[in-house]
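Re: the request from the purification team.
They wanted to know what the chain is likely to look like in 3D before they choose a buffer screen. I agreed to run a prediction and write the result into the notebook, where they can find it.
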Amino acid sequence: MGRPDLPPGYSIDAFHRGAFHLVQPDDGHRAGMDALVLAAAVPPIFAGTLADLGAGAGAAGLAMLARCPQARATLVEREPRMIEAARLTLDLSENSAIAGRAQILAADVELSGRERVAAGLADNAFDFAIMNPPFNAPDDRATKDDLRRSAHVMRDGLIEAWIKTAAAIVRPGGFVAIIARPVSLPAILAAFDGRLGGAEIVPVHPRPDAAAIRILVRGKRGSRAKLSLLPPLLLHEAQGHALSPCADAIVNGTGGLFER
C-alpha cells in the first residue's frame, strides 16, 4: 500500500505476517515467493553474516533476519532505484527491530578479482550467501522496462559469475544458496564444481502432479559430500488454492527448507 511519507512511485508490502515490511517500486520488480523460499535455505539457528546478492529492496535478506535473531545481513545491489527502495525499507519504523542488523552495499555481483574486493565484496567475508539471479531467457517475458529487464533477464555466463562471487566471499565451511528455474540446474552444478560441494537440491512444485517451476540449490565451500536430491517443496495441495502447510510456514517465517 502507498503511504504519504514515501516518495512517489513506491509502496509498502508486509511479509511474515508483519514481521518485516518492504518498500518496493510500483512499476519495477516486486518480491514474492521466490525471495521467501530462498531465505528459508538459511537455518533458523544461523547467527553469522549473510550476503544477499542482487538483493533488490532486501526481501530475502530481511526475511532471513526476521527468522534468525542473531544474524546480520549485507544487501548487495547495483540498481540505484532498488538501492533507494532498500534504504527506504531499512528506514521504516516497522523494521526497527531488524534494521540495525542490516546494511546496504552498492556493488555489481558480477565484478571479479580486485574490482570485486574494491567494491566491498572481500574474500572470505561472509558465512552465507544467497542469490535470486535473473533467470528468464532474453525473449521470455520481454519487457521494455529497464528495471524489470535487469531483474528478470539472464545473460550468458551470468549464473557462473554470480556463483563465482558467492563462493569467493564466503568463508571455508560457509554456504551458498541459489533459487532458479529447473533449466538452469546444469549451469548451477557446473559453477559449483571445484568451488562448492555437498550440493542439496530442493525442487519446488506448484502441485503434486505438476512439474517443478523452481529449484533451490545449496552448497558448502570445501565440502566433498555427494549431491543430494531432497524431498520437494509443494506450494499447494492437489486440490484448492491454499498454500500447503510447509509453504505456509515458509511464507510466514516459521519454517525452513532443510529442517523439515
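For the purification team: The two ends are 33 Å apart (CA to CA).
Please add any questions underneath this entry.
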